[in-house]
Each structure stands twice: as C-alpha cells, then as structure tokens.
Specification:
The structure holds two protein chains of two kinds. Chain A is an alpha/beta fold. Helix content of chain A is about 45%, strand content about 20%. By secondary structure, chain B is α/β, with parallel strands linked by helices. Classes of the chains: A alpha/beta, B alpha/beta.
Chain lengths: ~300, ~700
Amino acid sequence: MPDQQTTTSFKYLDFETLSRIRNMQLLAKTVVEGFILGLHRSPYRGFSVEFAEYRAYVPGDEIRHLDWKLYGKTDRYYIKQFEEETNVNCHILLDKSASMGYGSKNLTKLQYGCYMAASLAYFMMTQRDATGLVLFDTEIRTLLPARSRTAHLHRMLAELENLQPGGSTRSGKPFHDLAEGVKKRGLIVLISDLLDEPDDVLSGLQHFKFLGNDVIVFHIVDPAELEFPFDQITEFVDPETDERVLTAPQSVRPHYLSEMDEFYGRYRQGCADLKVDYTLFDTSMPLELALSEYLFKRSRSY
Amino acid sequence: MGSLDVINQWFLVGAGMALVPLIIHLVQRRRIRQVVFSSVRFLRTMSQRVVRRRRLTELLLILLRMVALAALALAFARPFFRERPKGLSGDAMLENQAALILVDNSYSMRVGGRLESAKQQALELLGDLGQGPKVGIASFSRQLQPLSQIGSDPAEARKAIQAIQPSWRGTDLSLVLAAADRYLSDRAKDRRQIFLISDFQRSAWDSGGNWRLSNGTVLSVKNVSEKELPNVLIERVQVPRLIVAGGSPQVVSAKIVNTTNQLIPRAAVAFTIGQKVVERTSVNLRPRAAVPVRFRYTFKDPGDVTGSISVTAKDAMSEDNVAYFCVHVTPQVRVLVVNGDPARQFARNDGFFLSVALAAPIKDRSGFFSVSEVSPAQLEAKHLDETDAVFFTNVAGISSTAHQAVKEFLERGGGICFVCGENCQPDRFNEALADLAPCKLRRKAMGQGEQPAVISVVDLKHEIFVPFAGPHTGNLALAEFAQYYEVERLQAASVLARFSTGHPALLEIRLGKGKSILFPSAMDLEWNNLCLKSVFVPFVHQLAKRLWAEHSAGQRNVIVGDKVTYQIVHKVDKVELQTPDGQKAPPGIQTGSDGLPTVSFTPERPGVYELTCGQTQVRFAANLDAREPDLRPLSGDDIKELVSSVQPRADESVKGAVKARPVVGEKAARERVENQQKLWWYLIGLVLLALVAEMILAARAGTS
C-alpha cells in the first residue's frame, strides 16, 4: 500500500518548527522536500513528457517505451524515460472565514490550512501540475487561476503568507461560482472547517463533480472542537456572528460531541455519496498526510 | 411559636460563614471567562437549558452550603425557644420567676466581715440569676427591710446590696421568713424563691410552730458564718419595775454569758450610774456558762436614772460587753380610793382599811403611797390625771362622765382594782362597771357548809404574789371568807387566785394599755377577816404596785429596733431627741384625739436616749437584743432542718397553684431549656442532610 509506506516512512515536522518559518515558500519547501526524501523508489516518478534519461530494458517494461532509434544505432534495448509534464489543473480552495481563525493552541485552523495549501501548491508545482488558489468566505475573495510557472507559485505563497481570517462561511455561492469559472476539468482541493450548512457545501461539491472534477476535501478541525475540553462555565463567542452562548461545557459536552459527530458524519456520508475524498484533519496532524493523500489521489486518477 | 434565643451568642457570628459560598459564587461569576470558539451553533440549543439548570443547581448548591454552614453555626450557638412551641415536649420553658434576696444585716453580722461576705454572695447570686428572674433585695434583722422592689433594674439591685449597712438589731429568722413570704404573696403564679443569706445564729431561729412558706415558694440559704466566734456578753439588765425615791436599796442585776470554751478569770465588771462608776467587782467566767452579777443601789432622787453594767473581756465583739439600763424613780405612788361605802363604823368601811394599809409608814420614812379618797359621785377626770392607781371599794356605779374618764385612764395605761362588798349588787355592777372589770358578778356565795372559804390557790409567780412565795413570808390562806361573789370570768381575764370552793378569788385583765383587777370580796370585816391578817398590808401594797400606772413612767428599757412611744401629758413647744452618740434630732410626733402629742422614735444603736419635752427630760436605755450577741451558729443539719421545716410540704405543693420549683438563674434556665429542647440535634441533622444533598447534587452536576 503506497500510502501506508509513505505514512510510516515520513519524518514529520512538528508545528513548533514550522511556525518559526515565516517565509511560506521556505515552509512549503521544507515540508515537501522532507516529504520527498521519504519517498524511496517512488513509483510515481517518470510520468513527465519531457525526456529525462535512458535505462536498459528489463523484461516487464512496456515495449511502447522502447527507443527504437537507439536500438537501430546500438542494437540494444533501451527504455526512454521522461520528466512528466502534467496536464492536470489543480485548484486549492482555502476557507478564510473567521471560524478558521480559531485555534486552541498556538496554531489556528487557518494557519494550518495555509501551511497545507502552500505545501500542496509547492508539491504540485514539483509535479508540473498547474495550480490555482481560491480564497473564499461568503464569496470568492481571491482567485489565482491554475498555472504551472514558478512565479505563479510565488504569488500563491505570498497570498497565503498575508492571509487573515474574516467573514462568514457561505460555501455554496463561491463553490458554484468557481465551478462555473473552471473550464478545464481537474482536481479541486478544498481546505475548510466546513462550518456551514452541509447541504450547501455538498451542493457545491456536487457541482464540481458534475463538471468532471476530482475533489479532495481536507476538513480542518481544532482538537478542542473534537474534544471540547472546557470545564468551567464559559461564554463562547462566535467569531463570525459575534453570537455569545453561556454554557456549562461539562453538561453540554455529550450533546456537543454527539452533534459534532453527526455533523461530521453528514459530510463523510455526503462526500462518499459524491465520491469525494474526505479526510478529517485536526491541526495536530502532520501536513505530510495531506500531501500523501494528494499523491494517492493523483496517482489513482491521473 | 415562642421567640428563639441562643446560649452562645458569639457563635452566631459564625453564621456569617454562610455568606462565604455566596461570595465565592459572586466572585467566580464575575470571572466567567470568554472563549472565542469556532462556532456556537452546536452549543446554542442545549446551553440555555443547561445553563438554566446549571444555574439552578449552583444556586441550590450554594443554598445547601449556606444552610449547612448557618445551621452548623446555629447548632454551636445552642438555640432554644423561650416559650414552648407546639409539639415540643418539656416543661422547662422560661417562666415568670421572682426571687427575693435577703441579706442579714443584724448586729452579729458586724463580726469578722460577715456582712461584706454576705453582700458579696448576694452580688454573685444576683449575677448568677441574671436577667431571668425578677429579683428583689431586702435586708433584715428582726424585720424585713425591702431595699429594691422585685423586678427592679439589676443595677439598682446591685446598688441596694452595696448600700447595705450593718445594724445593731437582733435577728428573728422566723419573723423575717414570714414577712418575706407575705412580700412574695402577690407573685402567686410565679416561680418564687427566697434566698436567705445570714450567719444563722442559733438564737435567731424560732421554728414558730407549724408555720410554713406558701405553696410554690422555695427557700435557699447561704451561710456566711465560717466558725463559732468566742464572745462574752451581758444579757439584759434587770431593774425593779417600780422604784420609789429614798427607799431601800434596789437590786440591779445582770447575767454575764461566756460563750467561749475558755475560763476567763477575774473579769472586771463595772456598775455605772450616769457617767460615774459606782461599784466594781470581778467574776470568774466559766466556759460556756452564765454568771449573774448583782449591785445594790439606793436611788435617792426621783427622776430618770440611767446607768450601765460592763464587763472587760477580749472577745469577738466588744459592743455587747456593756448593757444599759434606765429606771424611773418615782417620789410616791399616788393611789385614789373611790369609796362606795364610807361608813362611820370602820369595821364596815373598806376604804378605811385600804387607806390605812397603803399609807402605813415604812421604817423611818413615809410610805410609798399617797392616798386620797373620793366618793363615786365625786369622781372626775381630774382626779385620774393625778393618780397612778385607783381602787373602787364597794362601788356599784359611777357617773357616765366618770366612767368615760376611767376608761380613758385605762387606755393610757392606768390600773384599777374593784373590791366588791355589800353595795355591789350584781345587776347594778354588771350594768355600770362590768366593761371596766375583768368579770361580771353572778351572785353572792358562801363557804361550803358551815366552813368559810379560804384562798387556796395562788399564782405565786405573779408579781402580786411573788413576795409570798418564800417560807415565812405570809400566808393568804389564813384569811376566812364568809361571803364573796361568784363571777363570770371573761375569756381574756386571768385568774390569779381561787377560793377553796374553786371560785376565782382574784382576777386580772388588760384593758387598753392598763389593767383591771377584781377582788370579789370585801376588805372590811363584814365578809372576811383578811384585813386582820398580817398578809393584808403587803397584799394591798402588792396590788397597788401592780396597778401602778406605767404610763407615768413608761417603759424606759427598750430593745434596739423596737419603736418607742411616749405620750406627753402637757402641751410643750419643743421636743428633741438626743441619741447615744450625742446627735440631736427631732423625733416623730403624732397628735392624738385629746390634742396631746405622742412622741415616737426607733433606737438604732445601744445606749441612752434622752427625750426633751419642754422642761421635762425623759431617758431611755436601748440595749441589743439579748439573744443577738450569742454568736453560736446553727449546724449544717440544723440549717437543713430549718429549711425543711418551713418549706411547703410536697403534697401541698402538688395541690398548690404553682409547683414549688427553685428559681434558676438566667444562664442556668436558658441552658436547662436548651437541654430539654435539644434543637442543636435537629440542626446537626439538618447540616448532615444539607451536606449529603450537596454531595449528591454536586456529583450529579459534576462540580465540587
């Protein structure tokens, strides 16, 4: 199992280290290169259309990759290897709503999402995929179309570097708007806490799927959202609506956890129904898992 | 429901701890933290209900904790209901209580700081009783002297105790307890108690027969006499009742009592007249014995003569080593004979024999008596004003004016004697004079058979017959009575002698301050031969002396604390009293119906009091109560017996309106009530219940 291999061989970078890296590019490079170093004998190398090198034919290689001209000159069988040049357009959709600004520890969900998006973008660029970045809350706030140039990567990383949370989450409209705007089918990577109406979100995802896109959903949650570890009577303030709820956490925890489980379940089930890859990330999980997830999806579909 | 009270008030301060949970809650409430959370959509629905329930739970917890703390503090304060609440058993509710604290301030309390000790005990008792019972204060000697009314302010009661001064009076516990019982009688429905603080002299207790305190009254005693103190004292001086100036030497005697256990040899005794010691002697005072001393003295001049007898001894109290006396030396006893049958034949003339007998000269001087004679018709009030004794001889009746005058004469203390002869017809006598006599006449009587009657029974202890008590001092039985009157004796009259027939031969009765004597036979030779016997003269003298009007001299030897009255015969402008310490003060004066003033005063210390009424000086000798200097105390068992002898009987108490229960002090009463109610048990139970409920609720709410 490729993902199992990668997962077990990763040398995870802790977020303490990452958080000290201010430059998003350097951060993405650190993450991705660390990730790549873990890929021994990567089966995913060599899908580019640009020539890379020759190697001796071994039984089992596809005959279509034999260089017949070289056979004519040398009378030996050589397999021609190419640097893969993608034709996949990847769009990273990052939720920048205020709820993404929550973090129970030093790392907010948005920071985590930014790291994840930057790492993905960097990694995609190394794979010669055209990568675009969409920042949204109730609407699309930033739209960087998919490009495969390095300058485009820098621009994306700069956007992520300066990103501040704000606004409510209304995923339906920006998803539909984006789906209408994407002409070429490709890969849609959604990074969000999905604190929206599941029907709206799933409707948007369905729209992407309908247009032939592959969709990966990275559901970002804070560990506190999963465990609800509060014990004293606390007044909780919603960062998007400024709504305040005074409650006794210990009393509402079972109900809250049940609600959250149901909430996640709806996404999990909805995504499964739409054949959308859904992964729940809490911000304590290593970013490499996201790259691995992407790589798995990429290799499977393209 | 009665009002709530507590034993330990200071623990109520601890009830303030009940506020601690509330304060903590309020402080914590101000510190409710705010957390910006990603979304409150999953908290919204449950929170309001949960918070409401949580708040209610917290309030309940706070309430339970406050209740637990408050109940704990209250339990330690030991609360109780002052009145019996419904459903609560026990009879120890605080009742109305009246306590009378009696402090002995008699003469014996002067010794050894007894009075100070008694006052201290009274103050301590007052403190112990506190605000519970209504307390009254009284000092006592032979009389009760209320100092502070029952229910008066404790500060006033305290002042009253502190102001108690020792007196010179004697002690009579029986009288005092009876007076205290009467004093408490208007508190019949209250719980009553008398606290008697005294040195409990043996001489002060006279059980008084079957007398007991009223039902519901409890007697408690406190004894301040630590031990028996040695004392030497002079009991009352004995002086002759009648002394005629220039007569034979009179005996003044006294009894010296040694209550110590040691012999006092050759104790010096001095006999003083006025300020001058006229005779000295010495006596050996044996331990716990009395020694009489006698002094003979001739009172030459008429008037009031004062003196004293004193003994020198080292003992506990020196004030009782001297006893004072006062004698009134009269020039002569003035006798008026109202002769109802002045017959020329002296054998039938009672007045003749009587006058001769009274006027007989004694030795080398004129007789004691000056005799004047009037007929019944001549008798007027003025005759009585100048008379010490009156004899009615063979008188059947007198005028109404004279009757009234005789009556007033008796009221003033005069003495009259009826000698009944032929003229005294019973009907007439009974109608005219019976109210002045000790009896009514019934009929003439004779001896038995042919034998005349004789005087066969005589009260030889009576003043009249004392001279005839010894051998060879005259025999009244030698006189033969052929006739006499049978009499109907009044209940109040006493029979001093009887005939051999059993009929009274001499009767006496007190009428007013005076006395009336009736001799139911004659003093001439018609009915008897008494006048021929040798006992006749002394008998008549004794009768006259007995009749001697004490009002002319009055009682001059008094006891400290007894009220002294003296009636002034003539109108005077100025009346002044000089006390033994030389101070002069106006005595109390009351004017009688006759317009003549009566002077009264109460001697408060022993010594000679001199009353000046115009030109007349009257003296009085005041002495300590003869029993008071005897410092021998009652034993503990005797005191217990004293208490039990006056305490109401148990069965009487049950039948009484109020059960006899001792008064208890405020603190003790409160503790007793609290002990019976045991409210603190319920409070501790409440604490436990509250804590258990708190624990359960806290566990369910997930807080502690």
